[in-house]
Design brief:
Layout lengths: L38 H10 L8 E2 L6 E5 L5 E6 L12 H14 L14 H14 L3 E5 L2 H12 L5 E5 L4 H10 L3 E4 L4 H14 L5 E6 L11 H10 L3 E5 L13 H5 L8 E5 L9 E5 L2 H10 L11 H15 L1 H23 L3 E2 L6 E7 L1 H14 L1 E2 L1 E3 L9 E6 L6 H21 L15
Parallel strand pairs: 3-13, 5-6, 5-7, 7-8, 8-9
Antiparallel strand pairs: 1-2, 2-3, 4-10, 9-10, 11-12, 12-15, 14-15
The structure holds pyridoxal-5'-phosphate (PLP).
Pyridoxal-5'-phosphate binds next to helix 4.
Length: 449
């Protein structure tokens, strides 16, 4: 089901394989409501052609096999490679027990901002446990990961300061940067030399103001990670501050789930760490954690959604405490090992079938397609064929860089991963055939987008 009731007739002038949502992002005209209307027939055309794989509705928990309704109202069943429950903890019995216990002991609602009395004794324990895991001191919690990212950047950066940000950093970080200052410079993805050049250029003309450098521990569209040691050292050199978003790697990569920071030997060394609970930790919510008391106080006081939104519910706090405890335990090690076996099986099968997997092994397996029409048609086909996975297209990624983001869970078996790869490969081959392209060279980036 789409978010809206779609019109039945679709104008034949709309080609569902062309264009993108970006075409509608800057409407003109004085009537704010009327000028939104053009987007509806575009989505209707894509739904009718089965090339709008978004807004799926799942009936049940996000486990390894799911049943769900797609945008045209049809019911599909399949292997679930479209959810971010990386360690398969959302359905873990001890996590459910912790949630039920929290409801029994604390009720369902904190009924206050965290800045007032929206924290319980359990919230304080969670703050401590996050700091302990990441080698920091002070943790500030947020109702969402988005709010943590936006809140951290806007709390610290003033209009004359600068943000130097990885070109592919998440929308929440980009939004925070652009809300805080006009002085935003994007550096080439993961490129420390490009970041250094940006810092040097700023310091050559501005010795007065602050610079926040922003990156992620694991990039969610590319499955790759920066050289944190080099980045932090370069920041020190230019008196800049480093913020690392560990939404996708914390809990699931690195020793004891310490993430890319842990596996880089940088625990306690990064200026500011922020993350989200919505991936490995089976809950909504986010955090900012740091060794600097002033930074934490600023983020709490001026980081919008910490103060001006309700605190995390007792159930969310209990779920995150329990999932974090599992992630740090021997069971966490076993789950990470099982996850990586399925990841490797998926990557190997995709590559053996002639497509490219971007980045390094992680729970995110980006399968490169390139040409958007091929990716759109294939996404409809594999959803019919029994795989739930996400189509990522422009503007979320570059033009002609369309891909599928397959997200693996610890409970996926290598056999399931191989079965999913077979279905996805067949879908891409058929899509290419339908579009009159050669079925052999599958990863292509034709200029027609
Ligand atoms: C890198 C990154 N940061 C922040 C967020 C926002 O997290 P949440 O979904 O918990 O609001 C996301 C989620 O998509 C993300 O991928």
């Amino acid at each position: 089901m789409a978010h809206i009731t779609l019109p039945t007739g679709v104008p034949s002038s709309i080609d569902p394989l062309r264009g993108s949502m970006a075409d509608f992002a800057r409407p003109v005209g004085r009537d704010l409501m009327a000028r939104t209307a053009g987007v509806v027939p575009y989505i209707a055309a894509r739904v009718a052609a089965d090339v709008w794989p978004y807004s799926r509705v799942i009936a049940g928990a996000p486990v390894t096999s799911v049943r769900g309704e797609v945008a045209n109202g049809e019911i599909r069943r399949g292997l679930n490679f479209g959810a971010q429950d990386y360690l398969s903890l959302a359905a873990h019995p001890s996590v459910h027990e912790a949630a039920v216990r929290a409801i029994r002991d604390y009720g369902v609602h904190v009924a206050s901002s965290a800045a007032l009395q929206g924290r319980t004794d359990q919230t304080v324990l969670l703050e401590r446990e996050i700091a302990d895991t990441l080698g920091t001191e002070h943790t500030v919690l947020f109702p969402t990961g988005w709010g943590a990212a936006y809140g951290a950047v806007t709390a610290l950066v003033r209009e004359d300061d600068h943000v130097v940000i990885d070109r592919l950093a998440h929308a929440s970080l980009q939004a925070g940067a652009h809300a805080a200052t006009r002085n935003v410079v994007a550096f080439d993805h993961l490129d420390v030399a490009s970041m250094r050049a940006a810092l040097a250029a700023i310091r050559a003309v501005d010795a007065e103001h602050g610079i926040l450098v922003v990156t992620e521990g694991l990039f969610s569209m590319d499955s790759d990670s920066p050289d944190l040691r080099a980045m932090q050292a370069t920041c020190r050199e230019f008196e800049a501050t480093l913020l690392v978003d560990v939404a996708h790697d914390f809990g699931v990569l690195g020793p004891g789930g310490s993430g890319h920071i842990g596996r880089s030997g940088m625990l306690g060394e990064i200026d500011i760490v922020m993350g989200a609970f919505s991936k490995t930790f089976a809950a909504n919510g986010g955090f900012v954690t740091t060794r600097h008391a002033g930074v934490a106080t600023f983020v709490a006081a001026f980081g919008g959604p910490h103060m001006f939104s309700n605190g995390l519910s007792p159930m969310q706090v209990a779920v995150v405490r329990q999932t974090l405890a599992i992630a740090r335990s021997a069971e966490g090690d076993r789950r990470r090992a099982a996850l990586m076996r399925a990841v490797q099986a998926l990557r190997d099968a995709i590559v053996a079938g002639g497509l490219t997997c971007l980045g390094e092994p992680s729970p995110i397996v980006p399968v490169m397609v390139g040409r958007t029409p091929v990716a759109r048609v294939a996404s409809g086909l594999f959803m019919r064929g029994g795989v739930f996975a996400n189509l990522v297209e422009y503007p979320a990624v570059g033009l002609r860089a369309a891909r599928f983001r397959m997200q693996v869970q610890a409970d996926h078996t290598p056999e399931e991963a191989r079965a999913a790869a077979t279905i996805v490969l067949a879908a891409v081959a058929e899509a290419r055939q339908r579009l009159g392209l050669s079925p052999t060279s599958q990863s292509d980036r034709l200029p027609s987008g």
